[in-house]
Amino acid sequence: MASRQDWLEAGLRVLSEEGAPALTIERLCGRLGLTKGSFYHHFKGMAGFRTGLLEHFAAEYTTRYIDEVERSGGSTLARLDRLLSLVLAEDDDRSRVEISVRAWAAQDGEVRATQERVDALRLDYLRSLWRETGGAEADAVPMARLLYLVLIGAGQMAPPMTAGDLREVYHLAMRLTPGARS
């Protein structure tokens, strides 16, 4: 029997490969080779699955990164670099999921609300890291936006930027950080 986590991971794969309209119980069951009974063991219908999927997206693609970076400790610049490494390690999958969730958010209020919470949390974290560097308070919001928009924009390019290209852009931006190595 598949776990709740297995169903949610399958949901993110279906979403990123086929789009939100493909998120059906039948498609998910086919993907996992299981029956609807197994699905209903974990979720109270598709609405419950969607809510769980959005929570899973936020946890896996935001809180997990923040928690891991904070556990790793180190200087603020080391944590920023660790965050970049974590995000780039999953670049292809992360980018496809991000694009798919954002496209879905343009059509669905529940998804849009989740995306807004995720964006706010990510920006708040980047803003807090900037403040820890000793950067000017007036630059905290614009710098957080710059770092975040580079990541989101890189996934929208055709073809998407490589992890190496994205790292190069981030290192350029990091030179604006107080105490950064030249």
TrEMBL record:
It comes from Microtetraspora glauca. Residues 24-43 bind DNA. Residues 1-61 form the HTH tetR-type domain. Coiled coil: none annotated. Signal peptide: none annotated. PANTHER family: HTH-TYPE TRANSCRIPTIONAL REPRESSOR NEMR, TRANSCRIPTIONAL REGULATORY PROTEIN. This is TetR/AcrR family transcriptional regulator. Keywords: DNA-binding, Transcription, Transcription regulation. It comes from the Bacteria.
